[in-house]
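R.M. (postdoc): so does anyone remember the format we settled on? I'll just put the structure tokens first.
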């Protein structure tokens, strides 16, 4: 599945759209960034409510091509700028993490 297909599957707005449209290998859902660093894998889309610059830094570190921010949280400009600099897609949806994770799991054919 491509990033834009994932955005459609979770009714997400693409807030930062300067990224390479690659295939997603899966997803990882967590609001604890140390957990993400220890367990997420490269190529996975990150699902979280952590709407700040550090989330982008962690996504870059693990090789996540996209971040989905849930619950319609506002995204600070420095987060959007950091995602643009790193080439990481930044998506925002009104859905919660449970719903987003379920939809992505289904869309990925898991």
């Amino acid at each position: 599945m491509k990033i834009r297909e994932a955005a459609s599957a979770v009714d997400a707005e693409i807030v930062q759209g300067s990224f390479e449209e690659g295939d997603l290998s899966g997803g990882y859902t967590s609001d604890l960034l140390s957990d993400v660093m220890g367990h997420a894998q490269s190529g996975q889309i990150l699902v979280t409510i952590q709407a700040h610059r550090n989330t982008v830094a962690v996504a870059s570190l693990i090789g996540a091509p996209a971040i989905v921010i849930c619950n319609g949280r506002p995204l600070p400009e420095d987060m959007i700028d950091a995602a643009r600099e790193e080439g990481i897609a930044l998506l925002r949806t009104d859905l919660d993490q449970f719903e987003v994770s379920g939809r992505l799991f289904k869309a990925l054919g898991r």
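R.M.: ...and that's the designed sequence above, right after the tokens. Also worth knowing: Strands lie at 13-16, 26-29, 44-48, 66-69, 89-92. Residues 53 and 82 are 7 Å apart (CA to CA).
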